[in-house]
Amino acid sequence: MMKKILSVWILLFSFIPVFSQAITDEIITAIEAGNSKQLSGYFHETIELKMFEEVYLVSKPQAERILEKFFEENKPGAFIVNFNGSRQGSKYGLGSLITGKGFFRINMYFMEKKKEKTIYFLSIEKE
Fold this sequence. Notes:
Blueprint: H1 2-20, H2 25-33, H3 36-40, E1 43-51, E2 54-59, H4 60-73, E3 76-87, E4 90-99, E5 102-113, E6 116-126
């Protein structure tokens, strides 16, 4: 009986991280494919984009073009999520992008608007 209860608890708690992830599988797929169009589908209408030392406050289409250029110059291989968290009602995720030209740290901050989670800040830095 105790084994059954323990099994149920383990099963229930194993699904909790899936529901609370900031960086979803769809976002990971878009990054690994270098698909700026698909990734920009998760952007807020205006997004703060930090690329190395440059900081931009741009529209969704402008951010898409900036990332398209980044992905053309740095062909993605894999994206590994290092951390998902939340703070003061905002969710965030940190990950490492492996490319042919090296490793990059990617940080994303999300807001929820009309039950939809959107990225309002994204930074890419060389590791």
